[in-house]
Design brief:
- The structure is a homotetramer of 338-residue chains.
- With 338 residues, chain A is α/β, with parallel strands linked by helices.
- Chain A contains eleven helices and 15 strands.
- Chain A has an eight-stranded parallel barrel, surrounded by six helices. In chain A, strands 2-3-1-4 form a four-stranded antiparallel β-sheet.
- In chain A, strand 11, helix 7 and strand 12 form a beta-alpha-beta unit.
- The two termini of chain A are 44 Å apart.
- The interface between B and C is medium-sized, with 23 and 23 residues.
């Protein structure tokens, strides 16, 4: 940690700060500059101490040097992690493709979705049974009944199923039916939920919050990892910015940035990332070329009659075309789609 | 709802869309313009229908006309709501002042905090027992033990107590000890939690999510109101923007904007809104002059030894000075502080 | 234009507004809804009228239906435009590659840069002679001397040269030496400069401002087009968001979004878009797969001794490797790189 | 400057970096930590060197310690600067009030505006003659004819006149007519324009760019100061964020933040900062209580017929009421309005 003292600080204040650093088991190096005195604190960093020092009236700022996440870091585990569930392979040269409707609406809808995405090469099936909805007056999902339909559709097609869990008390229930849990963007910092999924064995897709920094995202993953569940898949699904022509702004540089810092696989959700069906196929191809480990794509047999997210859902035909082109792009970057 | 068709759309597509609008119980007016055909759908709007129509391949956009929230709207209840708990009055010309430490750390710390903020004119006491922390390695709060200390400090001073609840299964526990529940910014769209606090009688301070729009904020309140709990206090605590010289960006225009649209009282948290103790007093005064119904301020007997949020906590002396000046500003806008 | 009246508006106010609409040569349709009265104004829209109506005390909002840009619109010119200068082809299946250093620093530096990027397959040479620098104390560019060196390096290699112009009074000077003008992001709304480059024949790369919306971006292009210069190339170079791990946030969905609305070619600048050299190659590949018409890439023979933008500049070796992989990705999407 | 080396960096790389630091006339302190080696470079910092080091393949990051602006800094000039032109006093306990229409539209409009705002207590008159407009098809201002009208209205009322200059070649012209120049938000980083106004004696209101950081803002001021013009007034007019219910987001914490770091006065423009007339009065009061040195307010005799910015312009009556309440708030914080 680097502690910058205010201009004209007293020797006493410097002693105060260095004393506090040493009290916490770190070593303090004092560097007297031309305009400022700076202390370098060597040893195990702590955010609590950093805040404490920054609250000192003579301290201008206290900056961390080390990344705050540990288990998620590539420094802890240099080789990339992969997640494999049934036919779904994420990482290790495989780009997993999880496709399906936003919400599970009926038996025929989820079965037709599963069939069609499977035919086009998907390896995972998504479908929401517990739906976080902005308005209390919107459709909230079919809940357990939906989970049953999803499981059946997964079993019929052999696709790994992925579905959201919204509350700690539902984790066990969802685990009974689904192959992979999803934590939605709005719950990325719902710590009791993160702790709950950290306590099970089912892999977890953790979506980045719409205004989460990279450190916050990796620390959210750290909650799950720290709970014991090592199968965490990070998902970039777009951030909230001033742009309003897309639902969110999709920053694909997240993929290589995270891959430099964490061993966890990184998947992209271009459906929420853009919110506009016509923009989804080019962003799928861009994500593949950019090195992602997987895709999460909303596909609906009839988007104009979807109960949710119709405007951003691909038709099965558009999905098929995207997969066809995606295979070629994947091959161009020496990876395998699906 | 206004539906704009794409350029050169067919008559058939217009019929399709108007048919679907009428199917849903609305009346469709078709307006043929020079460049575009537009449909005005008159009747009860539905977000589901809007999305459905926007997913139509011949529709360019579908725009809502009406606000999506109902119970929170001033159109439903024109007169402002107030919340009164013990000495704490929020709204109706009273600016409630809820002050205290970020975390409850010990008996002496919370009792000294309570005593000092009470002496300076606070009417509520804040203090966190369940702490949502970015890192799993940070102090997570004293939990039930902390709640007991908070309750005792509240009883001794007569201050209404305000504390965060993080999980649906903790709502009953927190209600047993606290006068007012707080939903943190990270949980603003934790819908199972909103539903849980919607089912109790204790007033709720709902913090705006760091990237929540006004509609999303009011719809989150709507979840609680719809559950039966009418005592909801909205809290602006800063949004995430590109600004990095403050922890968040505090948009005070939230206050008059919300007051035009909702009857719910609006309070400001300048501590999180700035993250810097020296910026808190001027932002308190600005919020008072801007018409807020309350303030939520972090005050710690010794900020440099706080376990959390030290850099943004006021000393009791700084808080006292802020209150003294705040009374004058409140009087200038015909309101009463505390 | 759609005008939404406030709740409970008077008939008189509706007459006022419809009268004003008809006065301006449009036709007004009044639609009386259950909660609101809405007017649809049919005819040539005007932003001035829209603002005027929105300022009416009984009007809640006035929303435009038509895009505000005209010459830039695909509705005006459905087939995509291309720009060809010497070996540089942008659009029409060709992905132009403009590479080179941030600043022209010396004869040897720009000649070596030109030679190396040419060998790797670039078709354009970038290099700044007039440098917009955040600080007045930073290197401001070699100015005319730099332009001469750039021209000479372009002539030797046959590469088309691209360089920034910062002031209206420099446009003629820069046109004498360069093949393509660049308007920097900070000048995207410098309208006197846009008008000045609208008056010459030299093609213009117009960079998106860091907080410009799509409409603002296209209207900036419209200034140039309206001045008579039809060779405008749009460049996405990243937007300012809360993300701080990259210099800017690069939203690649800009490419397909713009391609749906304008005939102008769209190029990507992943160097400024990320600010981090290691993230540039994957974002180049992503941009190619996502359908861009060109790339603008900072390459420096010795980035650790660059006077500006070293951290985001590729070495010639890294650029060569990127081009090699880029050719394969371009082929996978049926396009030609360089 | 603090340079953090990558994990497992070689001794040779550390020597490289420390050698380069000493070459540039700074002293390098090497601190070997448990996980990282850090170098503290003591002496005159340079952004060029910082970037150079950050481009080194073994360097993780290079962080500046000192503020990059010098003349604008309170460390250079501790006492606050004030600007006085005719009756307009900005700073030193005086809150200057510059009011008037967005655009000068006609003789009667600007004279009536001047008269009305003067009667209500304004000390400056704003009015645009050169208008930066998003669309080339919008009204572009009355130019020199407008300047003449503004000057005449200023002379009649004794108000100091403030008007925008958009191009370096217009600076002399505008200086002939106006008392204070304004640099618009879109031109905050138009460096040739900043240099041009740095060369004259007329005071300058410099508006913050919609996505400018504090350092960028102060460095833009530094361009003017460095040119010799010491009368710079900083103006916060709102930033671009995800919020769409207001035209921009107005971060009032800018006022105390800047006042801690610079001696330059800080004024607030709540008209552009909100874009909504009803939100302007509370934000005026908030700005006054928050410690601003001045206000820039759009007032139009008839906002519903304004050629620009009608929705955010106050009527003379609303302005008068705001001033009346503003005086009381100013008195409460020991300052004088107007």
């Amino acid at each position: 940690m680097i502690v910058v003292m205010k201009r004209g600080t007293s020797e006493e204040a410097v002693k105060d700060v260095s004393g506090r650093i040493e009290e916490m088991g770190m070593k303090a190096h004092v560097i007297v500059g031309t305009d400022r005195t700076v202390l370098a604190a060597v040893g195990k960093e702590s955010e609590t101490l950093r805040q404490e020092l920054e609250a000192h009236p003579q301290v201008e700022q206290a900056m961390p040097i080390l990344a705050p996440y540990k288990i998620a870091s590539r420094e802890t585990k240099p080789e990339p992690s992969t997640v494999t569930v049934k036919s779904l392979k994420i990482g290790g040269g495989h780009i997993g493709v999880i496709a399906g409707p936003c919400s599970i609406e009926s038996e025929s809808q989820i079965f037709e979705s599963a069939q069609r995405v499977k035919e086009s090469g998907a390896t995972g099936l998504r479908g929401g049974a517990f739906k976080p909805r902005t308005s209390p007056y919107s459709f909230q999902g079919m809940k357990e009944e939906g989970l049953k339909l999803l499981q059946a559709a997964g079993q019929e097609t052999g696709l790994a199923t992925v579905t959201e869990v919204m509350a700690p008390h539902d984790v066990d229930l969802v685990c009974r039916y689904a192959d992979v849990l999803q934590i939605g963007a709005r719950n990325m910092q719902n710590y009791t939920l993160l702790e709950a999924v950290g306590g099970v064995d089912t892999p977890v897709v953790l979506k980045r919050g719409a205004s989460a920094t990279m450190d916050e995202f990796l620390l959210a993953a750290e909650y799950i990892l720290n709970g014991g569940n090592q199968q965490v898949i990070l998902c970039e699904r777009g951030i909230r910015t001033f742009e309003s022509h897309t639902r969110f702004t999709l920053p694909l540089a997240t993929v290589p940035y995270l891959q430099e810092r964490t061993h966890l696989p990184v998947v992209i959700d271009p459906s929420h990332g853009t919110g506009v069906a016509s923009l989804v196929p080019p962003m799928c191809l861009a994500a593949i070329a950019g090195g992602c480990d997987g895709l999460l794509i909303e596909v609906h047999p009839d988007p104009t009659h979807a109960v949710s997210d119709g405007p951003q859902s691909l038709t099965p035909e558009a999905f098929d075309d995207t997969m066809r082109r995606g295979h070629q792009v994947a091959a161009a970057v020496d990876r395998k789609l699906g």
